[in-house]
Amino acid sequence: MTCSPPSHPIPSMLVLSNLTNLLSQILALPALHTAVLFTPAGQLVTFVSEPIRPKDEVRIIVGLSGEVWQETREQGYGMVDSELGRIVVVPVEDVERKPGSTAEEPLPLMLIALNSDESMEWTELQAKGKLVASHLARSLSKYREFLVVRKPSTPSTTSVIASPAPIRS
């Protein structure tokens, strides 16, 4: 049995090492020391950090960034000053976000979080994030249907799930 190559070649931008290399290019040591790419659902895709950080610390950045994004997404970016330093989160999206829009907008393709110390200006941190996000969006936008997890629909009524276990008395 022989394996044939996939009918659609994997675009070079979707290769994990290429994503990691792109993120490493925006680091500005020692100030901007960590860049993280993750899904809107909070799944870590890849990250770069100098010096190397424990993965648990990166997951904290992802969790905090996800919360900040949910609270500030109308602005098109989020910022927080934390114990880990300054964190800016920007969307990787293929549609232009209009600040203050109330219409249901699609989830971004991915999110990027940049973590720096206090010596980096917020505007510079945000500009770097938007630059790499726009670069990624050009490559990833044609794969939106495969990358974006749809928002779960909220049920209109509460459902009761019966347990198969017998009731104890």
Automatic annotation (TrEMBL):
It comes from the Eukaryota. This is Uncharacterized protein. It comes from Armillaria luteobubalina. The lineage of its organism: Eukaryota, Fungi, Dikarya, Basidiomycota, Agaricomycotina.
